[in-house]
Amino acid sequence: MPKQYSDNNCTEKKELELYFHIPFCIRKCLYCDFLSAPADGETIGRYMEALLAETVGSALSYGEYTVPTVFLGGGTPSVAAVEDIERLLWAVGKHYRLDADVEITMEINPGTVCGESVSRFRAAGINRLSIGLQSADDGELADIGRIHTWGQFLETYREARKAGFENINVDIMSALPGQTIARYRRTLERVLSLEPPPEHISAYSLILEEGTPLFARYKKGELDIPDEDTDREMYQMTKEILAERGYRRYEISNYARKGYECRHNCGYWRRRSYAGFGLGAASLVDNVRFRNGSDLPAYLADSLGCREDVRHLSRGEQMEEFMFLGLRMTDGVDMWEFERLFECGMEEVYGDVIEKNIRDGLLKADFYIAAGEDSEPAQAARRLALTERGLDLSNYVMAQFLL
């Protein structure tokens, strides 16, 4: 991406993350309930044209913002033609004000890229890759409908390093059909033995979503899913092994080496404004939530006219989101920031909930020193965060912050 596209000459910095949804894949995984599906090359090409039109056509609406992060997700964005990805990123750079150190992430799957395409992605400005491995066991990969093998993942990873990528995430999953603790440990060890190891690891437990082929097989009694105790042991093992290898758990399911936390996802959890482009993509801009429709023919016909479900968040809804999104992060939420945003103390709104969960060992409140702006003095503040036990019971705790 040409350097002249970055422009930080703005007096008041309002930040806006950009997300681009590319909802296509080679074959839909058996556990996936995302808005994605296979498509032919002509359909993907038409979609990328519509996505480009939406991106360029929306630029004036966001002219006051600087862009700290860009994320290409799916689906599998790497099934699109490399030329279409290059054109999209060129347009983003031309029409939006990107931070000089903008983080640009793209999700890729092994089996959908080669050395040349990965190198061109890097040259186009992408500086962070998220590679969907899920398992280092070929049998487990086949059982959940993945299109690649461990060997293909290794080739993709090596090509990414060769292309100059120095910030790579690897996705892995636990509690897969037939998975044992020993086999899951082997996946962890294999990922950590990569040279060099990934800077970031996302570790998720399989969730059987209604409407997916795996869920249907489970209901018929055809799946050997690890029991709850085994799932929990895998979860504990993930935390312990990754901590030993220098990865900090900064969010419920995400681990990173120092300085490699996913800035884009951190923006979601901290309620930074973001604009979503593409089929079904969601947005949050200045406390207004909206999304694009999920009808593909309608999007192809008019990608700029498919906005729906526009909702202006009430003050109470903003407070709720501040709490249950922020508490996903192990650093928790800043009580002083809550007061600055909502002009009332967190204890005034959530005092009973906070007290109860601290008493139950699920929340902790820590003091820290917040640096003042300009000539303002530094202030002592409190940060509210989930304890280790609270992280294990996060859904239970977060639900209590719904007003």
Provide the fold topology.
Blueprint: E1 14-15, E2 17-22, H1 41-58, E3 65-74, H2 82-95, E4 97-108, H3 115-123, E5 128-134, H4 138-143, H5 150-162, E6 168-174, H6 181-192, E7 200-205, H7 213-219, H8 228-244, E8 248-251, E9 254-256, H9 263-269, E10 274-277, E11 282-285, E12 288-292, H10 296-301, E13 307-312, H11 315-326, E14 333-334, H12 335-342, H13 346-359, E15 363-370, E16 379-386, H14 388-392, H15 394-399
Parallel strand pairs: 1-3, 2-3, 2-10, 3-4, 4-5, 5-6, 6-7
Antiparallel strand pairs: 7-9, 8-9, 11-12, 12-13, 14-16, 15-16
Helix pairs in contact: 1-2, 6-8
Write a short abstract of this structure.
This protein is an alpha/beta fold. The chain contains 15 helices and 16 strands. The model is unreliable at 1-11 (pLDDT under 50).
Describe this structure in words.
With 403 residues, this protein is of the alpha/beta class. 38% of the residues lie in helices and 23% in strands. It has 15 helices and 16 strands. Strands 1, 2, 3, 4, 5, 6, 7, 8, 9 and 10 form a 10-stranded mixed beta sheet that branches. β3, α2 and β4 form a beta-alpha-beta unit. α1 packs parallel to α2 and α6 runs parallel beside α8. The longest helix has 18 residues. The protein is globular. The protein starts with 13 loop residues before the first strand and ends with a helix. The N terminus is likely disordered.
